[in-house]
Amino acid sequence: MSKRQGALRLVLGDQLSDGLSALAGLDPVHDLVLMTESVAEATAWKHHKQKLVLVWSAMRQFAARLEARGVRVRYVRLDDPANTGSIAGELRRALAEALVDRVIRTACGRWSLEAHLLSLANELQIEVRDDDRFLCSPTRFAAWTEGRKELRMEYFYREMRRRTGLLMDGDQPAGGQWNFDVENRKKLPAGARPPTRLRTPPNAVTAEVMALVGAGFEDHFGRVDSFDWPTNPEEAEAILDHFITDMLAGFGEAQDAMSWGRPFLWHSLISPALNIGLLDPLDICRRAEAAWRAGRAPLNAVEGFIRQIIGWREFMRGIYGLKMPEYALRNALDAEGRLPWFYWSGETDMACVADTVASARDHAYAHHIQRLMVTGNLAMLLGVHPDAVDDWYMVVFADAYEWVEMPNTRGMATFADGGIAGSKPYAASGAYIDRMSDYCKGCRYDVKDRLGDNACPFNALYWDFLDRHEQRLGGLGRMMMPLKTLSRMPEAERIAFRAKAAATRTAMGV
Ligand SMILES: Cc1cc2nc3c(=O)[nH]c(=O)nc-3n(C[C@H](O)[C@H](O)[C@H](O)COP(=O)(O)OP(=O)(O)OC[C@H]3O[C@@H](n4cnc5c(N)ncnc54)[C@H](O)[C@@H]3O)c2cc1C
Ligand code: SF4
User: Fold this and answer.
1) Which atom of ligand 2 is nearest to the CA of 446?
2) For residues 420 and 151, what is the distance between their CA atoms, to the nearest angstrom?
3) Which of 323, 447, 464, 489 could tie 430 with a disulfide, CB 3.0–4.6 Å?
């Protein structure tokens, strides 16, 4: 006799949206939602303690909200002795034990998990639905790439502006320009004081999970006691509202600035909540646009913010979907080095690196320019293997998911993809960091010195990087200027940079 009648609706830890496609048409009488705290997922990378707290606390609260609406939920806690530890294991167990005969799920973000779940199709009846929480589907992105020699975010972004109608006046961009980035590259003015951030003190569920993670995952990176992330839609809404009201107006100009001990500046801090589904990208952008139309924030700030979300975020996801799994093997600059230990310990005299690692350790956060131009730039100049770079970024940030992390590291930060996501390597010497921050004035190293004992390590590494990759980078238009300067450099100076860079790599254990 067949005992089965309903569907098992699988909800993963980054799929915590009320409108999730896997939940559409749910029958509360016969269907069952499966949510599982998976040790395999928690340790595939040894994620930051705060990321584990974020995901599990948010999952528990999401399950409770569903139950309050009368939905049946099979929630498997980490400490349940029957928990098999893997998503596939829990799917099999639920199908064997519950009155359900098939699985409905939303496609997952990580390529390897999706491939694994697809491989169960012979054994289990599974319906896979698109993840429509993104604004551009993989099919649509693939269609956009057709016939293009190069994939450039800027053109994709314009398409997204037209499609969403965001910041459009008819068929023209608001303010007569698509991109106001040139206005968004300012250093912090002396005496600038970013507004105080709204805190999200741990609620009761979060406090319980903090204790669990503190005790069971002690060897994972980072502090757990300073956890301060939203874990449900109300908390996420509060930080978004705070950003739009108090921060957005200042976001633009200071977008690329960095300051010792001030990791957040005017950044929105929404990515951890957004990436697990507590916020909706289009809603965020519409509210930012409304702030500009109401005269509460300037266009350069609002355009810059919206570009990050409908431009960069969607573009990165598109690249990942299009290029995986081959993308994960890319190492265009043949980087083979190890990641210096100070990326974990923070024990370095390089003030910019120490501050970025401290922010990652304490808050599971660093803003875009710290990720790109400090830790990313240094890893690229040192020649660290892209796998080790990916591993670090996946571990240390609360918002890390491979679909967005990898195109940012292999594409933007290290040029390991050879120019798919970006048009050039974002290589820079200490001068860039000095221009955009107050780090150098408190650093043991001298940012103006290139070869002396106290010379800023970025300087020799930068020239050595250009020297090593001169041939490879020669064809890139945007590298013409620095390569021209290199070509005029006397051979003796090049040799000195090579020697200094080699000594630096050795000292850093690369
Ligand atoms: C090497 C490297 C690795 C990164 N890894 C991740 C990651 O694992 N997860 C992640 O969400 N972001 C990642 N980013 C992008 C960016 O650094 C973070 O999204 C941002 O710092 C999050 O902080 P915020 O919410 O305060 O962002 P804001 O500066 O306030 O920006 C608003 C939003 O725009 C989006 N955004 C901004 N820049 C990017 C970008 N380059 N790619 C995709 N989305 C973007 C994010 O959703 C962000 O929340 C990475 C960037 C670099 C250079
Ligand atoms: S001097 Fe060099 S190492 Fe020190 S903070 Fe500036 S850029 Fe970083």
Assistant:
1) 1
2) 7
3) 447
- Which of 433, 441, 450, 453 for mutating ligand 2's site (highest number of atoms within 8 Å of CB)? 433
Residues with C-beta less than 6 Å from any ligand 1 atom? 267-271, 274-275, 305, 308-309, 312-313, 316, 367-368, 371-372, 376, 393, 397, 399-401, 404-405, 408-409, 412-413
CA of 123 from ligand 1 middle (Å) equals 38
Q: What residue owns the CA closest to ligand 2's atom 2?
A: 456
Three-class DSSP category at 468: helix
Atom 18 in ligand 1: which residue has the minimum CA distance? 368
Q: Is the CB of 378 under 6 A from ligand 2?
A: no
**Is 151 in a helix, a strand, or coil?**
coil
- For the chain, give me the number of helices (H) and strands (E)? 24, 7
Phi and psi at 75, nearest 5°, equal: -105, 120
Q: What is the 3-state secondary structure (H, E, C) of 96-115?
A: HHCCEEEEEEECCCCHHHHH
Expressed in angstroms, the distance from the first to the final Cα of the chain is 64
The rounded Cα 199 to chain-centroid distance in angstroms is: 21
CA 73, 13, 407: angle at the middle one, nearest 5? 155
Neighbours of 453 (CB within 10 A): 7
The SS3 of residue 23 is helix
DSSP letter, residue 45: T
Per-residue pLDDT tens listing for the chain (510 residues): 455 579 999 999 999 999 999 999 999 999 999 999 999 988 889 999 999 999 999 999 999 999 999 999 999 999 999 999 999 999 999 999 988 989 999 999 999 999 999 999 888 899 999 999 999 999 999 999 999 999 999 999 999 999 999 999 999 999 999 999 888 788 888 888 888 999 999 999 999 999 999 999 999 999 999 999 999 999 999 999 999 999 999 998 889 999 999 999 999 999 999 999 999 999 999 999 999 999 999 999 999 999 999 999 999 999 999 999 999 999 999 999 999 999 999 999 999 999 999 999 999 999 999 999 999 999 999 999 999 999 999 999 999 999 999 999 999 999 999 999 999 999 999 999 999 999 999 999 999 999 999 999 999 999 999 999 999 999 898 899 999 999 999 999 999 999 999 999 999 999
Question: Which pair of tokens denotes residue 19?
Answer: 């409108």
462 Cβ below 6 A of ligand 2 = no
Closest by alpha carbon to 284, among 230, 328, 243, 232? 243
Determine whether the shortest distance from the Cβ of 374 to ligand 2 is under 6 A.
no
* 402 CA closest ligand 1 atom index: 8
How far does residue 178's CA lie from ligand 1's centre (Å)?
20
- Buried b / exposed e over 267-302, threshold 16 CB at 10 Å, is bbbbbbbbbbbbbbbeebbebbbebbeeeebbbbbb
